[in-house]
Design a protein that fits this description.
By secondary structure, the protein is α+β, with helices and mostly antiparallel strands. The chain contains 12 helices and 26 strands. A 7-stranded antiparallel beta sheet has the order 20-21-22-23-26-24-25. Strands 1-12-11-8-3-4 form a 6-stranded antiparallel beta sheet. Helix 2 (303-320) packs across helix 3, helix 3 (322-329) crosses helix 5 and helix 8 packs across helix 9. It is globular.
Length: 696
């Protein structure tokens, strides 16, 4: 679509009762990011109350009809997904605005390939809109969904706000607090403070000439400039404070300029119930006593028993804890409604009936959304013929989806199971995959960081976590680097591994799965966004990217990955050198603080006072030269030793820890997967966590 165009959703697909909107972008460094927000507007073009402002601190709005699903990595950046249950949007809501904002002085000009895509409930893409001309703004309205004659339509907007998220939210009636810290000055662009003043909407295919444009036309009244000398910022940290009473405004003198108001921020959602991180002391008299659990694991003896128990446990909690069930199904196109779950269902299929592990059914406004569930535990692989049979059954019975759930992690552009889809069928069935690591991640985010509706739901999620994380449950996530792991390591040792070897590609794919699981686990523990950084050319195919990485593995004998943790000053890099058997975790810290080089070195050493003595510190200098390096133990008494002797300009510091690498392909005590988990945990806890605090 082009800017200003609109289209009716029902003309594109029959499955638009719920849709998925994705906002994406990329950057040259892989570090650029933005935050998504959604505003639900009534007939006056304003939010009814602050709860109609959906953003990272209030991810669900409109009675559950709108939900932010978080970020997912792509080949060259990341993508934010938003689930819309259009059938459940309150009737008084006439328009839904989809926007994104940057913070800390960043502008959208630093990002590439700004785009919006819209897909129906089966996952088929319907709309793609590339946003251009947003270089100097810190907030952009990508598009809007609106009602017209009882039908939902989409308009491609692509208009910017120089005043950021707070300015955008204010224009649509969100109540802003006055107690936020004042942001630094920004240059104001009157013509971009609020929606840009474009001409009338263009007409063309999918356009209604009678519809009003999204912005005032050239012949209409202009929007007055409203950016003060100190504009409102959109720092995420500024979106978490409680509301404060407004001070009475003083009259302005004709001889004095208006006094700029401090930065203001939208109110947050209502407080929810969370359980404490640390359990209370037990009153049991004997340390060998076992705490009674809602979901026991002691009687599990076979894979079949583990699959049956795990399916029943997860589906029952999904039905009883609406927040949890919604988080797991919203990304699959399910509406926000009353959820029912079933296990061990028998369905006819030719001469031999099939028994999927479970069924999920969601009812909203008299409409049903149904999905079959196929579960695997203990590292067992999904069977293509089984999944194919369930896809055929779902198509015949009018079900919307088949959901597979296993320890494996799906990769972009590489389905776990290849199935045939009969294009002649009018009814479409979507195939989705969940890993047990994703289920654990969502439960952790709710119970430890975001909260749920009441204490009973929090307790149920706690019991679910206890079950899934028990060694006997079989729900341990990705735990095996595959059959190619040992041959590839041997081939690297004796230098017989050649470019194009299919075994190297298998190792690269499993390495990517492991890194994605590390991000899920760490993000669930920290309550922060943790995403893998994939540096690749824009538009490159994921398969081609992995083939290139496999060739590098054959030549260099190293596996490399980067992960970005929200709130940290750099990207955490992981390198596994299969030749030396060493794991390196590192981060590059920019030398952005003012002051003399020696002062910078001393501040860095003080900040790392609790870090391990064997931490390696390397000075990064401009040009091609290498700076000095040394261990923290040696630099503590003499920080000047890290300064370049030739007076070269310091651009930053690289901090690294080294650890021996496990030999086995699995997650046993001496396994490679466990060694990676331990290396990342140690580096974050003992190094990265100290960098997040200000320098004393």
């Amino acid at each position: 679509m082009v800017k200003g165009a609109n289209v009716g959703l029902t003309t594109l697909s029959e499955d638009v009762g719920s849709v998925m909107v994705s906002l994406g972008w990329s950057s040259a460094t892989g570090e650029g990011d933005a935050d998504v927000s959604v505003l639900l507007l009534d007939g006056d073009g304003k939010v009814r109350s602050d709860v109609d402002f959906c953003f990272y601190n209030n991810p669900v709005a409109g009675n559950g009809s709108v939900q932010l699903l978080g970020k997912t990595p792509t080949a060259d950046g990341s993508e934010d997904r938003i689930s819309f249950d259009l059938d459940a949007v309150p009737q008084e809501i006439e328009k839904v605005v989809v926007a994104a904002s940057r913070y800390a002085g960043s502008r959208f000009g630093d990002l590439n390939d700004l785009r919006l895509t819209l897909a129906d409930s089966a996952g088929d893409g319907l709309v793609r809109f590339a946003v251009e001309g947003a270089d100097d703004v810190s907030a952009v309205i990508f598009g809007e969904l609106y009602r017209r004659s009882g039908e939902w339509k989409f308009r491609a907007v692509g208009q910017g706000y120089a005043s950021g998220l707070a300015g955008l939210a204010t224009d649509y009636g969100v109540d802003i607090d006055d107690d936020a810290e004042q942001e630094g000055p920004e240059s104001s662009c009157p013509e971009q403070d609020g929606p840009e003043q474009d001409g009338p909407e263009q007409e063309g295919p999918g356009r209604d000439a009678s519809e009003q444009p999204a912005a005032t036309g050239q012949g209409g009244p202009e929007r007055p400039a409203r950016v003060p000398a100190q504009t409102r910022g959109s720092d995420p940290a500024a979106l978490t404070a409680p509301a404060a009473p407004r001070a009475a405004a003083e009259p302005e003198s004709a001889d004095t300029a208006p006094v700029p108001k401090p930065a203001r921020r939208p109110r947050t959602a209502k407080k929810k119930v969370t359980l404490p991180r640390t359990a209370k002391k037990s009153l049991a008299d004997n340390d060998t006593w076992r705490t009674a659990r809602l979901f026991p694991v002691s009687a599990l003896k076979s894979d079949r028993e583990r699959e049956t128990r795990a399916t029943s446990v997860v589906l029952s909690v999904m039905a009883q804890v609406p927040e949890f069930g919604r988080r797991l199904t919203a990304g699959f196109g399910a509406p926000a409604g009353r959820m029912e779950t079933f296990t061990e269902v028998t369905l006819p299929h030719g001469e031999s009936p099939r028994r999927p592990d479970g069924v999920v059914r969601v009812e909203r406004a008299g409409k049903l959304w149904t999905a079959l569930v196929e579960t695997k535990t203990n590292g067992n692989a999904l069977k293509p013929d089984q999944v194919q049979a369930y896809m055929d059954i779902a198509a015949r019975r009018g079900y919307e989806a088949v959901i597979t759930l296993s320890n494996d992690v799906a990769l972009e552009g590489s389905p776990l199971v290849d199935v045939r889809i009969d294009r002649r069928r009018k009814h479409k069935v979507a195939l989705w995959h969940l890993s047990w690591a994703e289920v654990v991640h969502q439960a952790q985010m709710l119970i430890r960081h975001e909260g749920v509706g009441n204490a009973a739901h929090a307790w149920l999620l706690q019991e679910l976590l206890q079950y899934l994380q028990h060694e006997n449950s079989g729900c341990h996530g990705f735990q095996n680097m595959g059959a190619a792991w040992v041959p590839v390591r041997r081939g690297i040792d004796d230098e017989t591994l050649c470019r194009g070897d299919a075994r190297a590609l298998e190792v690269i794919e499993n390495w990517e799965r492991l890194v994605r699981q590390v991000c899920l686990r760490l993000g669930g523990e920290l309550g922060q966004k943790v995403l893998p950084v994939q540096r690749a050319r824009r538009g490159s195919d994921p398969g081609a990217r992995r083939a290139e990485l496999a060739d590098h593995l054959c030549e260099q004998g190293r596996l490399s990955a980067e992960i970005r943790i929200e709130g940290t000053p750099g990207v955490l890099a992981i390198t596994a050198d299969l030749r030396t058997g060493k794991l390196r975790t590192s981060i590059e810290v920019p030398a952005a603080e003012p002051g003399y080089p020696l002062s910078r070195a001393k501040r860095l050493v003080r900040r790392l006072s609790e870090a391990p003595a064997d931490l390696h510190i390397e000075t990064l200098v401009g040009g091609e030269g290498a700076g000095p390096r040394g261990t923290l133990e040696r630099l503590r008494p003499e920080p000047a030793d890290i300064l370049p002797k030739d007076g070269a300009q310091i651009t930053g510091f690289r901090l690294s820890l080294f650890k021996g690498m496990g030999n086995g392909r699995g997650s046993a005590e001496t396994g490679f997967i466990r060694s990676v988990d331990e290396a990342v945990d140690r580096f974050h806890a003992q190094v990265v966590a100290h960098l997040e605090a200000p320098v004393p």
